[in-house]
Amino acid sequence: MPTIKEVADLAGVSVGTVSHVVSGAVPVSEPLRLKVQEAIRELDYHPNHVARSLKTSRTRTLGIIVPDMTISFYPLVIRGAETAAWQQGYSLIAVNSTDGAERQKELLSLLRSQRVEGILVVVAAAPVPIQQITRLIEAGIPVVCLDRIPEKLPADSVSVEDVSAAELGTDHLLEMGYRRIAIVTGPLSLTNEKRRLQGYEQSLRRAGIAIDPALLWHGNVRPEDVSGLCKQKLGTVRPDAFLCTNGPTALGCLRALRHCGLSTPEDVGFVTFDELTLDDLFRPSITTIVQPAYEIGFEAATILFERIQGKSGDEIAAPRTVRLPASLKVRESTRRA
Amino acid sequence: MPTIKEVADLAGVSVGTVSHVVSGAVPVSEPLRLKVQEAIRELDYHPNHVARSLKTSRTRTLGIIVPDMTISFYPLVIRGAETAAWQQGYSLIAVNSTDGAERQKELLSLLRSQRVEGILVVVAAAPVPIQQITRLIEAGIPVVCLDRIPEKLPADSVSVEDVSAAELGTDHLLEMGYRRIAIVTGPLSLTNEKRRLQGYEQSLRRAGIAIDPALLWHGNVRPEDVSGLCKQKLGTVRPDAFLCTNGPTALGCLRALRHCGLSTPEDVGFVTFDELTLDDLFRPSITTIVQPAYEIGFEAATILFERIQGKSGDEIAAPRTVRLPASLKVRESTRRA
DNA sequence: CTGTTAGCGCCTTCAA
DNA sequence: TTGAAGGCGCTAACAG
Q1: Could you say which of A278, B122, B180, B297 has the lowest number of CB atoms within 10 Å?
Q2: Would you state the pLDDT for residue B25?
């Protein structure tokens, strides 16, 4: 791999001159510039980012940690962030935490060693000591949380407007005439889940319906577990509709319904957060509360850049909290006979 | 961000000693080691990978380029590669080419500047000068192609056994009694598409059915385009079944069918490469030729590591070609009334 | 075992 | 406008 020195030698100039034409920051006379460019082409020279980063202590790299990019929501988030990063000349390292606290810690540490200039993180569902993250921020590496928001973490965050999103889904079910609406949530240690539950409760209350604790099903983010939970609950309780607060949960719930011989929309109404299918080609298509995944990623990266740029000198700005609106895609699973 | 020197000062030892305890390569006496570790904890020291990479000229980083990780097949591939990389203590930079030749070139250049030690690439569907890739290999950066295999590129490659995979699907349709089977392909400039077409033809021939050119529909990887193509073709031709050679193509085809008021399996049989849905919860569930996506990624990364390790000294081994078997998931779209 | 030191490739003053 | 030189943080000899 050729170095800047080899280019300089071939072009018959000094390394400084080559550096100038590469960066474009300092003007170089036409003839020298051409000679340098020719040498670059000839040698197929690619500036060494590693050396540049060491010198400038700027890696022009961002990190993003997601639980599992196999879940359709996250690739969109990543692409949003990637686009924002690309526009600023940054690249993005995306890694999966598999929702493990230990793994997340390792990844945070790895990204730190790589000297990424900022980190986007969807915190693992496993309870994570927030110290993992506060330390990073103290060390001067800005962190923006997205999608899932840990409690009491003084960091920027971007996610959906959970309460109103849940209301959107619940109101729709109420409008369709469902009354015994069960909510299937993930772990309530995630603020979002709590807020979604809250939105559900508000909608019911507003409709004059009492909250029935027997219809509050609290699971986690593993479809198998949720499926088991639902099967068990279905033995004694029969809701007429379901609101699932995330994709994996919905998957588990749907499997349980099928297992119990219940179908939607014939037997029960069904609404979930997050897209389960690629589109509406399949039946029963599921009514979905769609989060603006791409925008969440894009917006989060944008905030991260503001932090990175504004880091020099003046006091740290207060954490920003951005909440993007969700939208409802009404499909067949809430179409009553 | 503390440096190795600060750790050394705090622990009252030399930087060499700190380096030794961090790497574990050179033994250090118990008392010193403890002092160093304490200092590391105290300062929250994270070794600078950038400096280390510059010194050792090994970044312990791999790159992977996919067309669009929003397509469900690719996240699995990436995770497979990530797992293999992680096991070797490497990290992975995943980027999207959006199937553009220019973009792919930029990404290759970027990864090269980042000094990744090897690259996994799903070549862009747009015709790409193979020189982009051969140059990399000449420069000593091993490249493994996966999923899509460009013609005449002397590089390692990992993908599915296209011919037999297509036969699998076609034979199944034949067994179910379909006779006028249309094949909807992506661009034939991709070897895989050609091979899949070949498998389809072999199956038909073996069954004594003549190839009808009117049933050979050649599209691209953009659902909208394919949908338009299919709508037009359906105006004059009526196949009794479809074999789609990839996901985006299938999507376009299904949309066209719906547009024309045709449903599967009632009116036509349907088989496609690649999963369209998360699972079999939706109807009509589509019979699918499933590629071992995770394994493809894992295997490709493994080969890449062999190249990276074996790079020193001896002559370059001949390109390896790995073909993994596909499996058929029979679902409702081929269940005849 | 432990300390010292020379670069890895590049950018960035600073002089010429 | 161009060239020369120091040093970013670390590792890998090498010397002690």
Answers
A1: B180
A2: 85
Mean pLDDT over B121-150 rounds to 92
CA A286 from centroid of its chain's CA atoms: 22
CA angle, B114 as apex, B110 and B118 as ends, to 5°? 90
Q: Does A109 touch chain B (CB under 8 A)?
A: yes
The reply to whether A34 touches chain B by the CB within 8 Å rule is: no
pTM (predicted TM-score): 0.94
In chain A, which residue's Cα lies nearest the Cα of B277? Answer: A277
pLDDT tens for B195-228 read 999 999 999 999 999 999 999 999 999 999 999 9
**What average pLDDT does chain B have?**
93
Query: Which of B72, B82, B282 lies closest to A72 in CB terms?
Result: B72
Contact B139 A282 (CB under 8 A): no
Per-residue confidence band for B126, with pLDDT thresholds at 50, 70 and 90? confident
Nearest to A165 by CA among A195, A145, A209, A206: A195
Rg (CA), chain B: 25
The answer, yes or no, to whether residue A127 has pLDDT greater than 60, is yes
Q: How many whole angstroms separate alpha carbon B332 and alpha carbon A279?
A: 18
- Locus of tokens 């109101």: A171
Residue A209 CB-half CA count within 13 A: 20
Query: CA A131 to CA A182: how far, in whole Å?
Result: 35
Q: Which of residues 126-145 of A touch B (CB under 8 A)?
A: 135, 139-140
CB atoms under 10 Å from CB of B125, counted, come to 23
Shortest CA distance to A283 belongs to which of B240, B75, B331? B331
Using CA atoms, how far apart are residues B50 and B48, in angstroms rounded to an integer? Answer: 5
Nearest to B44 among A59, A135, A279 (CB): A135
- CA B15 to C1' D13, whole Å: 14
pLDDT in tens, A167-219: 999 999 999 999 999 999 999 988 999 999 999 999 999 999 999 999 999 99
How confident is residue A312, by pLDDT bands cut at 50, 70 and 90? low
Spatial distance from the CA of B16 to the C1' of C3 (Å): 7
Mean pLDDT rounded to a whole number for chain A: 93
- Given strand B118-121, what is the order of strands in its sheet? B91-96, B61-66, B118-121, B143-146, B156-160, B321-324
Please report, for residues B230, B246, B248, B253, the alpha-carbon distance to residue B260 in angstroms, rounded to integers and kept in the order given. Answer: 10, 21, 19, 11
Bridge partners of residue A242, in order along the sequence: A182, A270
Domains of chain B by range and CATH? Answer: 4-47 (no CATH), 59-160+293-325 (3.40.50.2300), 162-290+328-334 (3.40.50.2300)
Reported confidence tier of residue B278, pLDDT bands at 50, 70, 90: low
Which run of H or E residues covers position B115? none
Q: Which two tokens stand for residue B170?
A: 């076609």
pLDDT per position as a tens digit, B237-253: 999 999 999 999 999 99
Task: State how beta strands B327-329 and B287-290 pair.
Answer: antiparallel
- Phi and psi at B145, nearest 5°, equal -90, 140
Spatial separation of the C-alpha atoms in residues A187 and A189, rounded to whole Å: 5
Q: B83 in contact with A at a CB cutoff of 8 Å?
A: no
